[in-house]
Specification:
- The protein is of the alpha+beta class and 143 residues long.
- Helix content is 26%, strand content 31%.
- It contains 4 helices and 6 strands.
- Strand 3 and strand 4 form a beta hairpin.
- It is globular, with a radius of gyration of 15 Å.
């Protein structure tokens, strides 16, 4: 089946951002345990400027910088949602676009549950320069 692209409601996106920021701001937050960033993916080509790793190098970012960017996301940065059943069932990834150092950065993130515990963590699969312009921002205020 693969991926299904959709637009989540304003309330769902706000709820997601609130949950994500709650994880980040929790007293027990541990970046090594509560944030998983797929910095290098199997299909990545070393000379592809649109990979997470190469974007991080170009921006001179580390994992803490990525967390700070995620914490600053707003409803206006939201672009779309992707239901992906490839990895572990029908889970929603939220896609955001953000201007960083004069580049559009494509961000795909979701909240996952750790095993059978109730502990949630943030899973970021994409944080890279956008391969194509991000033009859909359903909740961005019109200028």
């Amino acid at each position: 089946m693969g991926k299904i692209y959709m637009s989540s409601s304003r309330a769902d996106v706000k709820d997601f951002l609130s949950q994500m920021n709650s994880i980040f701001s929790s007293d027990g937050f541990n970046i090594d345990r509560d944030f998983v960033f797929q910095r290098i993916r199997e299909q990545d080509e070393p000379d592809d400027e649109f990979t997470n790793e190469n974007t991080m190098l170009e921006l001179d970012y580390d994992t803490e910088d990525v967390v700070e960017e995620l914490k600053s996301l707003s409803i206006e940065d939201y672009s779309e949602s992707i239901v992906d059943n490839v990895a572990d069932g029908f889970k929603i990834f939220y896609v955001f676009g953000k201007q960083i150092s004069e580049h559009d950065v494509y961000i795909k993130v979701r909240i996952k549950q750790r095993g059978r515990t109730a502990d949630d963590f943030v899973f970021c699969v994409s944080f890279h320069f956008a391969r194509h312009p991000i033009t859909v921002y359903p909740y961005k205020r019109k200028a």
